[in-house]
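Before a computer can learn anything about folding, someone has to put a protein's shape into writing. The three-dimensional part falls to structure tokens, numbers that each stand for a local backbone shape. The protein below has been through that process, and both of its lines are reproduced in full.
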Amino acid sequence: MEDFLEKVGRKLGDTMEELGKKAEEIGKKAEDTIDIQKIKSQINTMKRANERDFTDMGKIIYERFEKGEEVEEEFRVFCEEIEKREDEIMDCEHEISRIKGE
């Protein structure tokens, strides 16, 4: 009977040790997941900042174009398209005002 209890005790000890290792692994994976999410959040924040800067850069170039200042040819094409759309937007807004009777 003592032999049986010893085996059960060892088995229980082994099982507890395995459970402890599994708990550590799960904890490590959870910690890694949190760290990865923090890094992804930082990446997204930096990407949004870049997008704002790209937009601001484009606005500066377009403002120069509007003022008649020299704009590089590769940007001029974009500026001309923006200008066309701005005119179309104004036409659409006038049409809305006309329909409303304003």
The chain has two domains: 2-67, 72-102. The mean pLDDT is 89.
